[in-house]
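dumping this here before i forget
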Amino acid sequence: MDKTNNQGTEDESRSDWAELTHECLINILARLSLEHRWRGMLVCKSWLHSCKDPSINSVFVLEPEPDSARWWTPDLGRMVDSILRSVADWSDGSLREIRTRNCSNLSLSFVAHRCPKLEVLSIKSCPNVTDASMADIAFRCPMIKELDISYCHEISHESLVLIGRNCPDLTILKRNAMNLLDPSEHAGIVPDEYLKTCPQDGNSEAASIGKSMPNLKHLELRFSKVTAKGLALISAGCPNLEYLDLFGCVNLTSRDIDNATSELKNLKDVKKPNFYIPRSVFHTERYGHWRLYDERFQTDVFRI
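structure:
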C-alpha cells in the first residue's frame, strides 16, 4: 500500500516538472551550467525544447580541469565538437562567447558560419585547431574583442595577422606557451609529442601583433620565445597597452623590457620573466657568468 502511494507521489512530482511553462523552464535552465543543461535535456520533451532556446545559448563554457589528461584524448575532442556545434546551431546566431578546450577546425568553422556576433573566443589547448578555421573566424566574426589561443601549436603568426586586420575591436590577446623549462609541470597530462611542437619563433608572432593589432590593451605572452627585437615591434604597434604579461620569456632581460615599454604611456602592469631555474640546468655557455644570469632574470629568488 505504501509502495503504491510512493509511486503516485513520484508520478505527480514528475508531472509537475514536465508541466512547467516554457518561461519558467528558461528561467531555471539559464541558471545552470552547460553540463547540467545537457543532462536536463533527457528529462522530457519540454525540457529538451527549452534547452534549445537561443536565449540560453549565447554563451558556451566547457572547460576541463587543468590537470585532467583525459581532455587531450580524441574521444573527448569529438564530444566537445559535437556539443559546440549543437549550441552554435541552437543559438540562432546569438552565440557571443566561447570558452573551451580540445575543439577542432570542424566546430570552429561551423561557428564562424553561424555566429557572426561572436565577441569572445577562448580555445586554449586545442591541438586540432589550425590556421584554416582561424581564417574563417577572422573573415566571418569581425566583432571579436577577446582571443585566447594559448597552447594551440598549429595556429601560426599568419592567423594573428588575419584576426588583427579583420577584427578592429580586438583588445585582449592571450598567446601563452607551455613551460618547457620545467617539463614535470605537464608530465602525464600533455602528450610528449605535442610538447615538442611548441612554436619557437616568438618574433614572427610579435611582428604580426605589432603590425595588425593597434587597439590591444591586454597582452599575454607567457613563456614565449620573443626577444627584445620582437617586444620593440609590439610596443611600437600597440600604443594603448595597459597590461603586458611576459612571465617566463627567457630571451628578455629586465632592461630589454624597460627600454621597449618606456613609451607606453597607458601601461599599468608588466609581468616580468621572473622564475626559478636551478643552477644545475643553467647554461653558462649561453649567458656566460652567473652574474649575467642574475642580470637577465632580475629576481631575488635565485639565492641558492
